[in-house]
Specification:
The structure holds two protein chains of two kinds. By secondary structure, chain A is mainly α. Chain A has ten helices and four strands; from the N terminus they run H-E-E-H-H-H-H-E-E-H-H-H-H-H. Chain B is globular, with a radius of gyration of 19 Å. By secondary structure, chain B is of the alpha/beta class. Classes of the chains: A mainly alpha, B alpha/beta.
């Protein structure tokens, strides 16, 4: 029942945004507005803010004159391309994040030595890192393995995704109730047994929200990587291409932007499924 | 009964010259236990009672090898305490049931068997036997949060006894329960121990609880914890609702109370049982 209501509130919110958009187009200044000399009100003309129905109907029209596939298909294909890379990035980032968290939970020295660098790593701008990853990857040849271009994008997605997983999981693994740890001690359980039978399940309420952050971060990472490494075929590339036509075909870029947003939602939805599966037997309100 | 095994079996617990100092060698060193000697024969039910801060929980944790003694030795089933812990010679129950909320009741009971490497079918069978014993068979597939406090504590007892350890260590297991549930649980515990012939060391600060349950009540003084008195309770092995109304029961309650009265309460000093060692 509550799940049903959630879907409804989501749809209602979408409609509300569309209504507000159109409302602003009616009352907003055509060429933007200044308040006390600051240009803050966005321009309400059709180039900057196309009508909702124009954006929706644009999905049905072909991408350009040379093609006859509707843009919906093109955006969907782009989103699917990016989705697979982002999923790979999320998987890689989650694996690395979990691994680092376990290491840090096991050895205090590692935590003290490593954690500041993890924080530092997130201050490196992705744009600066992207060409480096591409060139490092390009030089990598292990036997028959050659570094595919999409892998650079996945690595950059993972670079953003691993951090919340590492920090969230570390917090979860180190806040295990002492009484439960003592119980495991009384059974002479090994560190490994304690990790898998107690620490991990007890950390799940920390890991799940971290995964949600990681999922969206991975999408952002891959989209930025597509743009900054010139990887073709994904939604990030579409956004850049369509943005160039913003004056002649203003609705076009929005189709790709919404595609990217939908992609983020799908990624978050996958994590929500993990949440449902992992927390199904827990008392209500154990997460969120 | 009070001076060890007579039939050639090893003593359930042997404590000799035991002492525990927290933060030893530092300015804030605290002497928790001093010169503890205690021998518990198989089949006995021994309660440790004393004002808070007398180190009774610490003594239990030393028997369980959850902390190391500063001096003296602890033997469980004739083995060093550490060996006994590694062999899972004892089960343990705490004030908080401490069930894993992500595991069903049956799975919680299976935990110690899983850690010992039992196969799935054997674990399942034993878990159901144990739940039968604590009369919670029909709750096997429920989750801990769906159970009342008393029921959770019964699951914890089933878990502690799942591997059939000869010794059960209990640290105020009924302390968080209401009086009615508590009395019921005491009767149930005696039945369970009789049926499984388990030796019990039981920490409590309730005098009637100690008298009702025990064959011997060990009275301890506050810091540094020492054994000041041992009261034998001869109320017979079968104790029920009417036991609590018997003259002999009241007499023993009075005897334990007087033994405790000779002791200065721990007063306003910090409670030593709150000194928790840092976990690795």
């Amino acid at each position: 029942m509550t799940r049903f209501r959630r879907v409804w509130t989501f749809v209602l919110a979408l409609i509300l945004v569309a209504v507000l958009w159109e409302l602003y187009k009616v009352i907003g200044p055509e060429d933007g507005g200044t308040v006390f000399g600051w240009t803050i009100l966005p321009r309400a003309n059709d180039t900057a803010m196309p009508h909702v129905w124009e954006m929706v109907s644009r999905y049905g029209q072909p991408e350009n004159r040379a093609s006859d596939t509707p843009i919906l298909v093109v955006v969907f294909q782009g989103a699917w391309f990016t989705f697979r890379i982002a999923l790979a990035g999320l998987a890689l980032g989650t694996a690395v994040g979990l691994g680092l968290a376990v290491l840090m939970a096991r050895y205090k020295v590692v935590e003290r030595g490593l954690l500041p660098y993890l924080v530092l790593s997130q201050t490196v701008p992705l744009i600066a890192l992207a060409p480096l990853v591409v060139s490092w990857g390009g030089r990598l040849h292990v036997g028959a393995f050659e570094w595919p271009r999409w892998l650079s994008a996945a690595v950059l997605g993972a670079f953003l995704a691993f951090f919340p997983v590492a920090v969230g999981t570390l917090k979860g693994l180190t806040t295990t109730p002492p009484a439960s740890l003592e119980l495991m001690d009384s059974y002479a359980a090994s560190w490994r047994q304690t990790l898998f039978k107690l620490r991990f399940p007890a950390a799940l309420p920390y890991i799940v929200p971290a995964l949600k952050l990681a999922a969206t971060a991975s999408v952002v990472g891959v989209v930025v990587a597509e743009i900054s490494t010139g990887l073709a075929g994904g939604i990030g590339r579409l956004i850049i291409e369509y943005a160039r036509e913003a004056t002649s075909d203003p609705a076009k870029v929005f189709t790709a932007v919404f595609g990217a947003a939908a992609l983020g939602l799908v990624m978050a939805g996958i994590v929500a499924l993990v949440d449902l599966a992992g927390m199904r037997n827990r008392p209500r309100g154990a997460t969120e | 009964m009070s001076e060890g095994a007579t039939d050639g079996r090893a003593n359930a617990v042997e404590v000799r010259g035991l002492a525990k100092v927290f933060n030893a060698g530092r300015a804030d060193a605290v002497e928790a236990l001093l010169d503890i000697d205690l021998i518990i024969a198989p089949g006995e039910f021994v309660s440790l009672i004393g004002p808070s801060g007398c180190g009774k929980s610490t003594q239990l944790r030393l028997i369980a090898n959850l902390t190391e003694p500063t001096r003296g030795e602890v033997l469980v089933n004739g083995k060093p305490a550490r060996r006994a812990r590694l062999d899972q010679d004892y089960g343990m129950a705490f004030q908080q049931a401490g069930l894993f909320e992500w595991r069903s009741v049956a799975k919680n009971v299976e935990l110690p068997l899983e850690l010992k490497g039992w196969d799935r079918a054997g674990r399942r069978r034993r878990a159901f036997e144990m739940l039968e014993l604590v009369k919670l068979r029909e709750f096997a597939e429920h989750f801990p949060w769906q159970l009342s406090g008393g029921m959770q504590q019964r699951v914890a007892i089933a878990r502690a006894l799942a591997a059939h350890p000869p010794l059960l260590l209990m640290d105020e297991p009924f302390g968080a329960l209401d009086e009615m549930t508590r009395e019921h649980m005491q009767t149930e515990l005696l039945r369970i121990c009789r049926e499984t012939s388990t030796t019990v060391v039981f920490v409590t600060h309730s005098i009637p609880e100690a008298v009702f349950l025990s064959t011997r009540v060990v009275v301890m003084s506050p810091r540094p914890g020492r054994i000041t008195d041992v009261v034998d309770v001869e109320l017979g092995p079968r104790r029920g609702v009417d036991t609590r109304e018997k003259e002999a029961f009241f007499a023993k309650v009075t005897e334990v109370r007087e033994a405790l009265r000779g002791i200065q309460p721990a007063g306003i000093e910090p409670d030593i049982e709150q000194v928790v060692e840092e976990h690795p």
